[in-house]
Amino acid sequence: MGFRLAVSQNEHVSPDDGQVDAVVSVIASDLRATSAPELAEVLAVDCSGSMAHPRTKIAAARQATLAAVDALRDGVRFAVVEGTHVARMVYPPDRALVPADDRTRAEAKAAARRLVAGGGTAMGSWLELASDLFDEHPDAVRHAILLTDGMNGEPRARLDAVLARCAGRFTCDARGIGDGWAPDELRHVAEALHGDVDAVRDPGELPADFRRLMDAAMGKVVADLGLRVRLAPHATLLRARQVDPAEVDLVGRPEGERATRFGTGTWGDERRAFLLTLRVDLDGFAVGERRQAARVDLVDAAGQPLAEPAAVLARSTDDPLRSGVLDGQVAHYTRETELGELILAGCEAHDAGDGRGAEAAWGRAVALAARLGNEASLRRLRWLVDVVGAPEDGVVRVRADLAVKDMHIAALSSTRSTWAPGAPEREPAPPGGPDVRCPECGRVSGAGSRFCPRCRHPFEGVER
Fold this sequence. Notes:
The chain has 11 helices and 22 strands. It is 29% helix and 26% strand. Helix 8 (328-351) packs antiparallel against helix 9 (355-372) and helix 9 packs antiparallel against helix 10 (375-381). It is α+β, with helices and mostly antiparallel strands. Strands 4, 5, 6, 7, 8, 9 and 10 form a 7-stranded mixed beta sheet that branches. A 6-stranded mixed beta sheet has the order 2-18-17-11-15-14, with no helix packed on it. Strands 1-3-16-12-13 form a 5-stranded antiparallel beta sheet, with helices on one face.
């Protein structure tokens, strides 16, 4: 498969410090050309009573479900679940996944049009039913979408237990609608299940968002990609986290002597970056001596390597000018972390009635987002503040019309990062030209597509 690893770090380490920070970039490309795995999908749609206030929320949920079902390619196993204080099958009526085709898509959409709001919110039950449905398809690439407009009504311990059971079994993208959901709770679900987390400002945006999520899910090829870190005897791993496209602490499990495997969820053609922080004992190192501190492998669910390994190195130095230099990519993601902390600090200050504190934190966040080129965070910060002058100056005023949901959405963006300058580049953009219509199922795909995302028909030789 088309995976490659690259490491960026300052390998010069002072004996007085011993800390080594290294960014591991992973790029996956051309995966769809080599494999067409079985896919399984569950849509868990919040139908609690609050979804009826206003009714635009339940209407948007229906339309978003229709859009997601339409995006399913033939053969994908799927189900639609109604989420209230219990989880109920919407389609199919039996507790099973059915393969998508013209008939099942039409039946599922007819059932989704009948969704009504009423009841409570028990996200753990929704995820538990999704897990049970996925259990019948252990070899599939499994993905769920969870939509909610409110906070979970179950004890946190109950939700945590379900997430622990589901972790590594399937990925789940979490979406919020309205302003009654909790950013920390939604992020907790997505991080535990290696999914994307976000919310829509307007209910009318939800169908397009669901289609984007589903199109991305249809491109996943590897079910459970792992980052295996094997330490040298003189090294200790302090922390491992994903830093792009979003910051998430990784949870590892021991795998052999001095090795830990960190699950990263499902993958398609994409790129991600991870930050490893190690402590190296330099006793026994000669000044200038260079040794490997850790070996990093990319492995599948069976532990088989998928790319050439990468090395994290340590070179002893007594020159503070060398050891004090912060690697460019490490510095970039350190500043991205600071940006997220500033956004959250502003939210906390505003919640506490401290308007000046909110302006101070969000002003610094605006300036930092501008310097980093983090346009997504900058755009969301503008929902919260009016920027006076150039963004880089960081002079802001809290908006008089600031909405709670905008602050919640900005809080979610606090974990989103931008690709570091100097990191391995993205794969080339698809070539321009006309869209292509699949001669097999009629689905229209963008220029440069080589396969139909619905039926996997190859486009080689197809008139465009």
